[in-house]
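Good morning N.,

You mentioned wanting to compare the apo and holo forms, so I went ahead and generated the holo version with glycine. This is what I fed in:
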Amino acid sequence: MKILVVGGGGREHAIIRKLRENPEAETIYALPGNGGIARDAQCVNIAATDVDGIVRFAVEHQVDYAVVAPDDPLVLGCVDALEAAGVPCFGPRANAAVIEGSKVFSKNLMKKYGIPTAAYETFDDLSRALRYLETAPVPIVVKADGLALGKGVIIAQTREEARQAVTGMMRDGRFGKSGEKVVIEEFLTGPEVSVLAFTDGETVKPMVSSMDHKRAGNNDTGLNTGGMGTIAPNPYYTQDVAERCMREIFLPTIRAMKAEGRPFRGCLYFGLMITGDGPKVIEYNCRFGDPETQVVLPLLKSDLLTVMRSVTEGTLKDTPVTVNNGCAACVIMASRGYPAHYEKGFEITVPEDVWPSVYAAGVQEKDGKLFTSGGRVLGVTAVRDTLKEAVGASYAMVRRIHFDNAYCRSDIGARALRAEEKE
Ligand code: AMP
Ligand code: GLY
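and this is what came out, ligand included:
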């Protein structure tokens, strides 16, 4: 079988490694992939947003199955275009990817179908938004409607900060078209849990829960990033919480999308907060999370290709999704300065025995050597019986990897370990 994976980060590397476990996956193309992924797949220099180029390549190379991993091509309709060309795909069509592509859409969906989430108002008019803020309680959360590389969410501690956020988005075009509309919502507190779930539009089967570490600095300080590390399972996601989430959030969401004529087929990411009032949805993503995937897939016992194809064919109900016991930790090695300014082009050395635990993100290959080419460079994942062992093993590998200006948080998993101790 010839498989095409759209994307080129650590998440795509984790997907490709897992797909390769199935001997049917003879050839895997990564579009565009990266210098590290090139060790596990054939990388082709076609951008993940070049939908026409992707379709042309798939048809020319008689690709049997495609996996579209990143948000942009999904929202742009890459799955629709591949399907129209006769290529079976994993991933939602554009009319379902809108669940991530528009926060106004997803908030209105939750309101209409009674799915628990933060109370909110939506605005497409600056003066109305500013008037609303005059009496709104603070802290308050301002969100750009569209995709904004995870940076379109501002937690305003004061009314003045909220006014600046809204004005920056709606008047000054800070996030381009993504910020023309905004959601202003209630500030919630509680531990956050990410749950990635397979769904074919009828059945929903979650994988192991995880915890992201979004801020750049230790103890959740500094700027928001794409994610500096993850652990799985998430100790706050107890059996009781899981059952409530299935009943109050997962099934209602799948049914709501179907009722709206937008059946979601693919991996749906539930960003949840466990509040005093029960689990609530912070955000939906229409795809695997990054770096959640780098801990969730190593713990997946089922064959990924089999599960993905059952999602495409609508037979997920009859396909088991099972998870291994044990725990995983992924530490992101980034370029110092990320997510603001950083230098790139430094040579990366990874001991051969560590390589199978490494997922490449901002990595370029030149003359057989690897060099840094982005903010998040590598994800280093260990799987062990306990979370403590997994975290220790991941950091032990990190210490054996070298590139100039490497930076990682030193507290990945610390909060989860404290939560485990309290139990
Ligand atoms: P998002 O880009 O939607 O994942 O938001 C980024 C982060 O902002 C989330 O992971 C939360 O930590 C935080 N956040 C988003 N919405 C809220 C909210 N209503 N209350 C508190 N924190 C929030
Ligand atoms: N790690 C969060 C995301 O993938 O959006």
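The domain at 119-186 is CATH 3.30.1490.20 (Dna Ligase; domain 1).

Happy to go through it together on a call whenever suits you.

Best,
F.
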